[in-house]
Amino acid sequence: MSLINGxxxxxxxxxxxxxxxLTWSAKLLVQWNDTFRTLFENALSRGKAPGVAYGIVxxxxxxxxxxxxxxxxxxxxxxxGLGTSPKCLTx
Length: 91
Description:
Blueprint: H1 16-32, H2 34-45, H3 50-71, E1 74-75, E2 88-89
Antiparallel strand pairs: 1-2
Helix pairs in contact: 1-2, 1-3, 2-3
């Protein structure tokens, strides 16, 4: 979404509870997971604001969770590419 005079913002469509949960999950992932911390630091080095960088991490996390749930595979952080689609490891 873009604003005529100002910065673009995260969409407010959908569940506020889910959006909040993803944001807090992203903050914890950055703190405790090296793969997501690298993604966060790369976003900051490209000049993104911290809130935007957390949004990038949250989107990547949501994509990984969706793929792992739909395929029935377990998450493997070593298989996650920062610029590619998420990959899971077969159980």
